Amino acid sequence: MSNGDLLQIDPIELQFPFELKKQIACSLQLSNKSDNHVAFKVKTTNPKKYCVRPNTGVVSPHSTCDVTVTMQAQKEAPPDLQCKDKFLLQSVVASPGASAKDITPELFNKESGNHIEECKLRVSYVPPPRPPSPVREGSDEGSSPRASLSDNGTVHASEYNSVSRTHAEPQDNSSEEKSLISRLSEEKDSAIQQYNKLQRELELLKRERKKNKSGIPLIYVIIVGLVGAILGYLLKRT
């Protein structure tokens, strides 16, 4: 910050975060602490490289004015980011009520007897700010699932239900499998008991046949065959 008799200039060093092929802007603030209107003019040693808006103007008493200096896009970087460019800001007391249209080259002519205040501004290039590191996807792997909280600490119901379903589904599947296995086991035991019962009845019929020398009813043979087929099918499923 430069504290002159006419204008206070902040900053006195123009810093540009240098990037190739990109326009970069830097701002100056001119503060008039006096009771006079102060005219200013900005000059640079490299006018083709920089654009100054406004490059001339009038700062009213006890007010401020912002000046934007834009560096044109550069195709190559200087060695070690060193810059030799300089700016010169001239200020002079203007007539009361003066505006930018009242500024003439003679106003900043020292030979005219005007008291001209000058401030040299340096230029420096600094590395551009680094972008924030992206959050790696899956960084929360291995951590236990949590329901997110709102600003007031309330758990979002949709997320809580999603987590609950995730934990509940394996238990439901396990329960269904156990129920199916239990039912199949019961059917198998029932079929075995029925088969054994028919076998006993068949043995009784054979004994009766020996006694009576009569044939075994065809219906019993068919039933025994069907039960045997059903039992074989159930044994394969389990």
TrEMBL record:
Coiled coil: none annotated. InterPro entries: Ig-like_fold, MSP_dom, PapD-like_sf, VAP. Residues 123-185 are annotated as: Disordered. It holds the Pfam family Motile_Sperm. The chain crosses the membrane at residues 215-235. It comes from the Eukaryota. Residues 141-165 have a biased composition (Polar residues). Residues 166-185 have a biased composition (Basic and acidic residues). GO terms for cellular component: endoplasmic reticulum membrane; plasma membrane. Belongs to the VAMP-associated protein (VAP) (TC 9.B.17) family. This is Membrane trafficking regulatory protein. It comes from Lithospermum erythrorhizon (Purple gromwell). The lineage of its organism: Eukaryota, Viridiplantae, Streptophyta, Embryophyta, Tracheophyta.
